[in-house]
Amino acid sequence: MKNADRSHTSPDGFEQIEKRKPSPAKKILIAILLLSAVFLIQHFIFNVLGIQTRQDLIMTDTEIGISYSFDMSASFYSPGGRFFFFGSRDGMQYISSTGEVRWQHNLNISQPVMIGRGDIAAIWEPDNHRIYVFGPSGLMYEAALQHPVLYFTVNQTGYLSVITRTGIGYEIHVFNPADPHNPLYGFRAPINDANVFPMSVDVSDCGTYVVKALLDVNVTMLSRLTFSYIRRVDSPGTLDGFIASYQFPDEFIIQARFVEGNRLLVLTDQQIRGFDAGEGTHNPQWNVPLYNQPDQWVVGQSGFAFVTGDAFLNQPEADDPGVLYIYNFNGQPTGTYELGRRATHLSMGHGTALVGMGRTFYAISAQGTRLWTASAIQDVHDKFFLDNTDAVLLVGGTRAAVMRRLRSAR
Fold first, then answer.
1. Partners of 356 in the beta sheet?
2. Residue 314, CA distances (Å) to 311, 318, 324 in order
3. Residues 90-123, buried b or exposed e (16+ Cβ, 10 A)?
4. CB burial of residue 158 (10 Å; 0-12, 13-18, 19+)
5. pLDDT, tens digit, 9 for 90 and up, residues 377-399
6. DSSP structure class, residue 39
7. How many angstroms separate the CA atoms of 373 and 363, rounded?
8. CA separation for the pair 211, 209 (Å, rounded)
9. 247 in helix, strand or coil?
10. Cα(74)–Cα(293) distance, rounded to whole angstroms?
11. Are strands 120-125 and 264-268 parallel, antiparallel or unpaired?
12. By the 8 A CB rule, do 137 and 102 touch?
C-alpha cells in the first residue's frame, strides 16, 4: 500500500540530535521505559487483539500419510472428521487421522473416480459401468449400469444418483440404500428427446425427492428444474411422481444440489438460486447474482462459497479475480475475503473455507477472517479439513500428508 509507512528515515533528522553520552542513571531510566513500552505493546497485541494463542502455532507435517505412485489414480475424500477415504486402482480404504486403517475393500479399477458427501463416498469404475458406495463401516452396495456413466453423485444418507448415455438418449437412475436393486424403491427416468440434455441430478437427504436439471434447446435455450417423488408410494395421484417444474430461459444450470433441511441450491452461469423445502413443494426463495465466472465453488454443511474468476462482459459491479464470498443457506452473505490472486482449490469444513493458491493456502472463517496461512513443499492437488480447522489432509502427486498446526518449539 502506497504511503502506508509514514516513519521518518531522513538522516537530517538524526543530525540535529546532540551527541552526548547519557549518564548511568539516565540509561537505567531509558531501559525501564523501553521495557515498559514493549510490555504494553505486547499486552495490547496479544491480549486485547486476542491472537497470542494462534501466532505460536505452525503447520507441521505429522509424518502420518500415504505414499503412492502417479499411476495409482489416487483420490481422497474427508467428511471433516477423524477419518478419510482413500481410493485407488486397488480399492478403497478408510483411514484415521492418526494413520490407522479401519477397513480396506479390495477392487481392481483402472481409472477410479471418487466423490463424497457427509459420511458417504462413492467410487466409479468407468470400464464396466459400476459404482461402489461406501460408508464408515465399509461397502454399502454396488450399482451396475448398462450404459456409460456421464454424471453421478451421492447424498449423505447413501442415495446414489446417476446419469447414463443410452443408444437413443439418456437415463436418470436413483438407487435407494435400503434396497438398491429393487426398482420399486428406486427411480428411473428415460430422456429420449434429442434436444434435451440432463445436466445434474440429486436426491434430498430425507430420500423422498429427486431433482433433475435439464437443458432444452428445442426452440430457444432454456434450463428446466423438475422435482419428483422417488417412490410411487410417496406420490399420491400421479403415476410418474411429478411434483413441480421451473423454467429459466437463456440460463445454463451447472449443478443442482440439495442441502440441509431438504433445501436446494442451483448454480447457473448467471446466479445461484435457493429453493425452499416444503412438504412436496419447492419454491424459489432467493438468488445471488454472479458478476464474475466462479473459479471455484463449494457447498459445505452450513453454507456455500465461491471465488471470483474472470469478469463477465459489461458487468461494472464485477470484482477482480480472487475474491472469496461465503453465504449461508438462506442466501445471506456472512463474509468476504480478498485473496489477491486466483484460487486453485476450495473446500469447506467446520464452517470454514480452505482456499488454495498453488502451494499456499488460507483458512477463512465464515465471517471472512483469515485464521491462518500455511505453505506446502510440493504441488497440492486437493485438501480437506480433518477433525478440526487445525488439521488438514494435503494431497500431492505421490503423497497425501496429515498436517496439524502445532506449537512452535522455539
1. 345, 361
2. 9, 9, 21
3. bbbbbbbbeeeeeeeeebebeebbbbbbebbbbb
4. buried
5. 888 889 999 999 999 999 998 99
6. H
7. 7
8. 7
9. strand
10. 29
11. unpaired
12. no
For 277, what's the count of Cα atoms within 13 Å in the CB-facing half-sphere? 20
31: Cβ contacts below 8 Å, ≥ 6 apart: none
Please report, as a single letter, which amino acid is at residue 266. Answer: V
pLDDT block averages, 10 residues each, the chain of length 410: 30 32 46 40 31 58 91 91 95 95 94 94 91 97 95 96 96 94 86 96 93 95 93 67 90 94 94 83 90 96 96 94 97 97 95 94 96 88 93 93 78
Beta bridge partners of 294: 308
123 contact partners, CB below 8 Å, separation of at least 6: 75, 87, 92, 107, 109, 112, 113, 114, 131, 132, 134
Q: How far is CA 106 from the centre of its chain?
A: 28
pTM (2 decimals)? 0.83
Report the alpha-carbon distance of residue 123 to residue 75 in Å, rounded: 9
Closest CA to 202 of 138, 238, 255: 255
Q: How far apart are CA 148 and CA 293, in angstroms?
A: 30
The answer to whether 267 and 255 are in contact (CB under 8 A) is yes
Paired with 405 in beta bridges are 59
Ramachandran bin of 3, using left for φ above 0, alpha for ψ from -120 to 50, beta for the remaining angles: left
Distance CA 305, CA 295 (A): 11
Residues 258-284 pLDDT 10s? 998 889 999 999 999 999 876 666 889
Phi, psi of 200 (to 5 degrees): -160, 155
